Amino acid sequence: IEHIICNLFPPVIGPMIMGSHYGVMLLWFTIANLSTLNSHCGYHLPFLPSPEAHDFHHLKFVNNFGVLGVLDRLHGTDSMFRQTTAYKRHLLMLTLEPPRSVFTSDKKEHKDEEEVG
Questions:
Q1: CA torsion sign, 1 to 5 to 3 to 75?
Q2: 25 — pLDDT class (breaks 50, 70, 90)
Q3: Cα 99 versus chain centre, distance
Q4: Ramachandran bin of 43, using left for φ above 0, alpha for ψ from -120 to 50, beta for the remaining angles
């Protein structure tokens, strides 16, 4: 029941209220599912939005509630995340090189990241 109310109902209600065409609804659900898959896959895939903020949300559960991060910045719920090395990797990678090899962290930074949480 929680899955239906919290995960399925929100993306369905908007197109239903607006009376969207079936094709538009299908496209919307596809994009919403792909976004969810990208956020929860555990990989920072090239040419797709970074899942670093969402990964940090699942790590701490008191940060990064928004989808785009605008409201998190406005309300300050991303303050712990902005102090971590994951924040440096939180960008759209336009290369096939993994973000962890582009943005390396030494042991001191990793220790600081653990102390933040």
A1: negative
A2: very high
A3: 15
A4: beta
Compute the distance between CA of residue 15 and CA of residue 54 in angstroms, rounded to an integer. 25
User: Band of the pLDDT at 106, cuts 50, 70, 90?
Assistant: low
Tracing tokens 């990793």 back to the chain, one arrives at: 110
**Joined tokens for residue 116:** 């933040």
User: Per-residue pLDDT tens for 76-90?
Assistant: 888 888 888 888 888
**CA–CA separation, 28 and 36 (whole Å):** 12
DSSP letter for each residue of 25-55: HHHHHHHHHHHHHHHHSS---TTS---HHHH
